[in-house]
Amino acid sequence: MTKTNCTDHISNEAMTDAHVSFDFDRQGGMIRNFTITSQTNTEIKPLHTAPWALDPVEVFDDISLVEQKLSGDFFCAPFGGGGDTPIHGHTANGHWSPLPLTDDGASDDAISAAYQLREKVNGAVVTKRFELHPGDPLLYQSHQFQGGAGHLPIGHHAMICVPGGASLSFSDKQFAATPAQAPEPDASRGTSLLKYPQKTDGFGFLEKQSGERVDISNYPFAENHEDLVIMAEPPSARLGWTAALAQRDGFLFFSIKDATFLPETLLWMSNGGRNYAPWLSRHRHVLGIEEVSTSCHSNGSLASAAERSPYGLPQGLTLSTDCVATINYAFGAIEPPSGWTKISDVQINADHLVLEDVSGDSRSVTFHGAHFGL
């Protein structure tokens, strides 16, 4: 496989306050080089790029495009892949063609870009849209599925890198669990440390295979491991949020999702636990914060089902010829305020977000709530 890039640079650098920019690779749909420049000219770069992704010398013919270019964030449909579909689907391995912009909901002062996936997903036409808004330290995304048939698991695949560690916080969850099978069950290829499967109320302590309990709200909790944890939203949740406070690495990352379409948060803890190519035990301190919809919270499988789970949640996206589904999501980052140790809450309003630390201190950032119908 030859590494090629067809990259668009998207930026609101002409705007005041927070400047946001990123590169979008139309071959595979990767977001990389996501950068927020603060009013003090501090550059915040929370997202991760795999060490082999941009190296033209390292080419691995036996892996999919998404693994070749593993970077930042991308949309997965079907999440995990399956059958003749590459891992994480055509949305993460196919070709995105730019579309002319139309006045279909973005405010007049937003910077927008739209793309359509050349390949169809279960017969559906998929359209991607980006928006940047003045003063907002966030990138807003939407993925629209038009037509198609059947159902499939879907999700966003944002990744951060935190060699200095991160304190993790989430909107209310029904429970946390591990899938039915460890991501690395073969000790000759890699190492997974957590017990599979297991389930616990809320979020916090889980068991390792050794029986030791570890606090997974502080990442990394160990070295040389590859582990997955899935969390389920309450069935009444309209919006959900995730926050990762990486004080030593200089950022507070946060994401907002439409929980009616993405009712799970999957944590991919990738910290040197894979020793085969291209990983070679060098993919370290990476945390995938993946907002998804699968059957995993119900039966431990990254698959989908047409009906709601026993926990009242959708198990993937159901398509139909006369239906249009739009999945909305946003992420951003700010400099971590001095002395902050853990986010206690994120209040979501129509025009701002309030990020609160356990100390009681808070920061407000501008927010385009209309993206989520607020």
Helix/strand order: EEEEHEEEEEEEEEEEEEEEEEEEHEEEEE
* Amount of helix: under 10%
CATH architecture tag: Distorted Sandwich
Shape: globular
Total separate domains: 1
The largest pleated sheet is described as: 9 strands, antiparallel
Q: What fraction of the residues are assigned to beta strands by DSSP?
A: 35-45%
Unreliable stretches: none
* Alpha-beta classification: mainly beta
The CATH C-level name is: Mainly Beta
**Oligomeric state:** single chain
Spatial strand sequence of the major β-sheet:
6-7-8-9-25-21-20-13-18
Count all strands and give the number.
28
The average pLDDT is 93
Distance N to C terminus? 44 Å
CATH overall fold name: Beta-galactosidase, Chain A, domain 5
Number of helices: 2
> What is Rg?
19 Å
What does this 3D model show about the protein?
By secondary structure, this protein is mainly beta. 2% of the residues lie in helices and 42% in strands. The protein contains 2 helices and 28 strands. The strands form 6 sheets. It has a 9-stranded antiparallel β-sheet with strand order 6-7-8-9-25-21-20-13-18, with no helix packed on it. Strands 5, 11, 12, 14, 15, 19, 22 and 23 form an 8-stranded antiparallel β-sheet that branches. A 4-stranded antiparallel β-sheet has the order 1-2-3-4, with no helix packed on it. The chain is globular. The protein starts with 6 loop residues before the first strand and ends in an 8-residue tail after the last strand. The model has no long low-confidence stretch (mean pLDDT 93).
